[in-house]
Amino acid sequence: MVSGLASLNFLQLLFLLVSAYGSGVNAREMTELAAHSASHMDQMNHSLKIFFTMNELKAGKFFPTSLPMNDPSTSPPLLPREEADLIPFSSQELPQILDYFSFSHDSTQAKAIEDAVKRCETNPIKGETKLCATSLESMFDFVRSIFGLEMDFQVLSTTHLTKSIATYQNYTILKVPKEIYSPKMVACHTVPYPYAIFYCHSQETETKIFSVPLGAEDGDRVEAVAACHMDTSHWSPDHISFRMLGIKPGSSHVCHLFATDNLVFVPKSTH
Ligand SMILES: *[C@@H]1O[C@H](CO)[C@@H](O)[C@H](O)[C@H]1NC(C)=O
Ligand SMILES: *[C@@H]1O[C@H](CO)[C@@H](O)[C@H](O)[C@H]1NC(C)=O
User: Fold this and answer.
1) Ligand closest to the CA atom of residue 49
2) Residue range 50-55: average pLDDT?
3) Which of 108, 197, 206, 218 is deepest in the core (most CB within 10 A)?
4) Which of these, 141, 142, 180, 153, lies nearest to 258 by C-alpha position?
5) What residue numbers bound the domain in which 234 lies?
6) How does pLDDT run across 205-243, given as a tens digit for each residue?
7) Average pLDDT, stretch 69-79?
8) In a domain, 5, yes or no
């Protein structure tokens, strides 16, 4: 029996939303996100890089950000597909889901479950393919459906090379970030839920992927994965990145880092 929802702090939530919606736009959701973020943003430390441009991806640049380590002991359990497929997962079946987990229908968990399920059911934007995978098997099937059965792929994630308890660090980019071959890519983000759910999506527009070596003064070392979305013309004008970077849809690419619990799939380069 699985229970309990991973609690997320605001930054993790922002990263989750940013990465889940970063490239895509559903106008209503983005408006809600923008409103939600704006209220926090004002109180937030402005010296935090959430969105940036490729000009920032240079050796020696300071990179103040928050990349809390993934704590496997608080991660929800991964279910085998046979088990996951037996658990209802749709907004029509909300009462059955709540009964399955023994959550009362007016609890905060019920609200979180409803949010997660509804977010999984939103329509992809133009040029986007998405799936909420409820098991590793269905995540891999989704990746194969995007890349084709013949293509080998690798999985990347933002990784701490040292043990770190810091949440915020004024990192420095230690070496020139390396661009990773990514003619196609699938990004999967964990969704807070009683068992592991991956919100996976892929866009047709060009996305550049970089491996960014970060170091902090206290010795913390992180190999971060960054995505730069080269075409932002279909994004909602309300997308918070535009305000944060002072740009307009389509006028510039937008980059972000992936949180440590995100998975990024790219084809394996053959040369
Ligand atoms: C913002 O970050 C800087 C850099 O570490 C820190 O010194 C400062 O206390 C932070 N401010 C707030 C309001 O958190
Ligand atoms: C990061 O460290 C550098 C060097 O000490 C400093 O110039 C910069 O202002 C710091 N940035 C933040 C946001 O604290």
Assistant:
1) 2
2) 92
3) 197
4) 180
5) 10-267
6) 999 999 999 999 999 999 999 999 999 988 888 888 898
7) 84
8) no
Segment 152-206, tens digit of pLDDT: 999 999 999 998 887 789 999 999 999 999 999 999 999 989 999 999 999 899 9
Query: Best substitution site from 49, 170, 172, 220 to test ligand 2's pocket, by max atoms within 8 Å of Cβ?
Result: 170
Ligand 2 interacting residues, C-beta cut-off 6 A: 47, 62, 64, 170
Task: Tell me which residue has its CA closest to atom 3 in ligand 1.
Answer: 47
For residue 69, what pLDDT band results from cuts at 50, 70 and 90? confident
Å from CA of 131 to ligand 2 middle? 40
Q: Which ligand is nearest to the CA of 44?
A: 1
Number of domains in the chain: 1
pLDDT digits (tens, 9 = 90+) for 87-125: 999 999 999 999 999 999 999 999 999 999 999 999 987
The ligand 1 atom at the shortest distance from the C-alpha of residue 44 is 13
In a domain, 4, yes or no: no
Judge whether 205 and 183 are in contact, CB under 8 Å: no
User: What's the CA-to-centroid distance between 62 and ligand 1, angstroms?
Assistant: 14
Cβ atoms within 10 Å of 223's Cβ, excluding its own:
16
Q: How many Cα atoms occupy the beta-carbon half-sphere of 90 within 13 Å?
A: 4
Q: State how far the Cα of 150 lies from the Cα of 71, in Å rounded to an integer.
A: 34
Query: What CA–CA distance (Å, rounded) separates 89 from 132?
Result: 10
Question: Is there a domain that residue 3 lies in?
Answer: no
- Pocket flag, ligand 1, residue 167 (CB < 6 Å): no
Q: Is residue 2 one of the residues assigned to a domain?
A: no
Question: From atom 5 of ligand 1, which residue's Cα is the shortest distance away?
Answer: 170
Question: pTM for the full model?
Answer: 0.80
For ligand 1, atom 8, the nearest C-alpha belongs to 45
